[in-house]
User: Fold these one by one.
Assistant:
Number 1:
Amino acid sequence: MARVWLFGKDVNTDQIVPGRYAPYMLKNEDDLRKYPFVEARPEFASTVQPGDILIAGRNFGCGSSREYAPLALKMVAIGAVVAPLFARIFFRNALNLGIPCFTADLTDVLHDGQEVELLLDEGIIVTAEGQRIELPPPPGFMREVWASGGIVPFYRTYGRFPGEAPA
Amino acid sequence: MAAQTLSEQILSHAAGQVVKAGDVVTVQVDLAMMHDSLSPSIIKVLHQELGAEKVWDRDRVTVVIDHVAPAASVQTAEHQARLRRWVAEQGITHLFDVGRGISHQVLVEEGLAQPGMIIVGSDSHSTAYGCVGAFGTGMGTTDVALVVATGRTWMRVPETVLVRASGRFRPGVSAKDLALRAARILRAEGATYAAVEWHGVDFLSIGDRMTLATLSIEVGAKAGLVPPTGAAAHLMRIPAWLGVQPGASYMWEIDIDLDQLEPQISMPNFVDNVVDIRDVGQVAVNVVYLGTCTNGRYEDMIAAARILNGRKLAPGVRMIVVPASSEGLQQAASDGTLTTLLAAGATIGTPGCGACIGRHMGVLAPNEVCLFTGNRNFRGRMGSPDAQIYLASPEVAAATALTGYITHPQEVM
């Protein structure tokens, strides 16, 4: 089972990883895994488990272009992020890194700390009580990028960008 | 052909076919910008993950050391030393090293950013290039690495939100107030995935247009464009196909009457948490910080110096000025603006991003209050998560420095 981490709206990238903890500023880049939500939710980095999911309000990931914000979430193996609206750069960065993002508002459906199971391929969250929540299917190009494991392996495999006609 | 927004015109031109909002396109990029903070990771993706040996075009990939400039630790100094070696190995033409200034300001001053271009930067405030009518957009490490490797990127053609200004600013009111007023109406997510066009601002300087363009990202925008018209555009090389077309389709239109506009204050901890200055109440500040790509230019220093002229900062208030570029600093030094600021008690930092990202040159302690001319007041942005950041114009910054509490410029003008 995965744990739900519930966040409000307008979670910005300074909350996800403050600029002071960028890899550029760290002696050991792997230490980035210690800093997701270091100030917004200090207990997060030490207790998050692989596969846990983030449920957030509107405009998740607004602010800076720093890819190390979603990278830090990838380093702690977040299973998915679900929010009704994602900030554009965060959404691209997460897609590029292969982090599943689903556009849905579950902030009133799930609660913080709830135990759930994410069936990624089916796009379904199942709660411990057996409730099945269908996530809206992402566009085809996103599934292609996820299937490749991110934009770099996608580009290296196909030699083109998503949505671009094959050469 | 249906009338097009500026973004549709630029992306159609780059795609070589007529495109409209909602289409997904792959386009040639005209200029790429990478800064010191993300260059190490961009170079890693470029060589180790993408397997590219050379950048796509050594004249079009620009490198700027502005985020921690000068280096604040051995760690950042080493990164910058490696970056300089890499620039030399790649034969990159345009490296703007420590002290030249903030990437966006510098690329505009150098004439590298031009109307109609597509410019991708490793910095969210790359919307700045809209000040010259370019489609500037910020992307993360991997997207920028792909641009640097291939000269291309992909994106969805954005819808456009139109901000239409009318009238003229009253004394003590400026472009920052227009931008914050727009953020107050549009809110932080109002232009997500969209572009913002700023109309009715032909009378503004390029610098003031950059204030509008940089703040476009704070309402979620992919790009923030000012039409390249008016006196400030006279010297620009404007493509014949670029210009406002009557009948273009906008997803949201808002009107702002500059004649009625009061100084706007963005309250902690969200940029769109904006009120008229008279509704702020008595807020004492410890630090007044004038700088950033949003309001650290020569004209911003002039605006502050006019108010500070011959007077002293309020006791206990620190004022830190970090010019956006060396060119602005030189202008301010040569015409006495700098002397006015120093005589008032302000201090000057190396041109660059300064404490905007909370890394050096004036980070805030817990419970300190900062009046900041920058673009973000998120919790922890400039240092301690328990500091408070209020965003405002250079005019409000100067007035506040004189009294020690957030002050309407007209009270001291």
Number 2:
Amino acid sequence: MDPRSSRFAELTSGGGLAALAARSGEPLPQLMEARRRSLLARDDAAAKLAALDRQDDVSVVVMGSWGRLELTSGSDHDFVVLVGGSPRIAVSPTPEQVGEVLNKAPSRSGAFDDVAYVDHLVTRIGRRADDNDNLTRRMLLVLESMAIAGGEAHEAARRAVIETYVDTRVKDYRPPRFLLNDLQRYWRTICVDFEGKQRDRRSKDKWALRAAKLRTSRKLLFASGLLPVLECHDLTAEEMRIWLGETFAAPPVDRIADAFLRHEAYDAGVRTLVAYDRFLGHLDDEGFRDELRSLTRGDEDRSAAWVEARRLGRQIEEGLLALLFDRDALARLVRQYGVF
Amino acid sequence: MVASPSVRSVLASHHPVGASTGCFTSLRGDWPGLVTAAHEVSSYAAELAALQAREFEGLLAFLELEPTLPFNDLSVHAPTKGLRGPDHLRTLLERLPLGIETIVVHPDTLGDGDELAALGSRLIVENMDGRKAFGQTADDLADVFARLPDAGFCFDIAHAWSIDPTMALAGELIDRFASRLREVHLSSLSADGRHIGLTDEHAALFAPLLRRCVDVPWILEAPVSQS
């Protein structure tokens, strides 16, 4: 199945992002351009991957900025060869073949550029077997994944993971706790891993770039999962499955924009996404990225790039906090479910 | 700072709120003391205000010592008096540490050019009250933002009220510059245009517009106990 046909039908019209842009008169040019660039890159990759043998239950899925439709000139092309079952000897295509198409040598370290099995994502829950890579793949499959080959297999995998979170034990009008806990665990894991990397001499060099992304893209990604899960409070369990399946098919910024619109927090929504739009524009600038990459800890206040990234991160955070705590309906949900 | 119930209701509904050091007139020039006083009001937000050019020199000297500034959101109010033109203002502001990411400026101090454009998004431009010749209306500010395209907006709600007590101008300012809004100045004004503590009447009148500004710091420009 052509990956463009179902899941991303909404994306070309922009969904919540386009609606917020239209309402505010703010064109959000960087986000729109990143989306256009991401879809073009997807089309290009899909055409090339079509020449490779692919097993029916295998999809090639991109995550990270490409999966969010936020590709910039400095983006990594993180991908996973996702297999809709348990481990097998031969998988087609191989990560090496995909890496060649994407001009990227598989790193084989971390969660990306490797084979992942849906069985692992839905059965290895918590404890030792649910390691960092498994958690990362499960969450990113739900929150920010896009197929560049095998759209049907990807959609089936995504649905399987959502149904694992929203199984028969989920009660009507109660946000699914397992998904909520996993989301919060994932966000806190990213934050703690960031600290771990600061203590690792080998990975100290990119701390400012990582910190800037943590305060912007990753924080927004977490919120884009948290908001729909909290809003399950208004739904029956069956409605939750449909709602989460549909809303997680949209890119994260659309979910964020939709939440601001739904709760009539237009002004804060515009400011939040204008700040993120600006950050993406900076991220597309090699000079800005280089300045952040070269920063050593302690010198950050001498970097205009860092001060700007920090400011934009704070603006995004304050916009999200205003949405979560200054709208009565959401504030009650955060109080009830957000802490314990 | 002790507030009446209705003023407290408006302030309690918002986070973060903080104080301008201009509230603490008895400590003027004592920057460590002013920071301590502002911190006692809030550790979330503060504005270091030095409205005289000479006073600003004292602030620069204080900031050169790299003091601990225990606020999440911190802005510096640029001088508005004792200036020898926009170049003088630019020279002073360029001496601020880069870590000061928000600088409040008055539009009537900026001249007609783009001398301050290099300060980019660190600048936020405040709307003026009726005593100033320029900078009260949305069109005035649009003209400034055309020259300073990266600058943000500091919404002084009492200044807008002083021009148009129906609050139509205040609403227009928020409508037109919503995406630029970075800070709110919150107070009432005396008959002679001085900032005084937020009154009950203004707390009620301002509340609908303040609800559109819930994601930016609100800076108290006068002690609320005076209301």
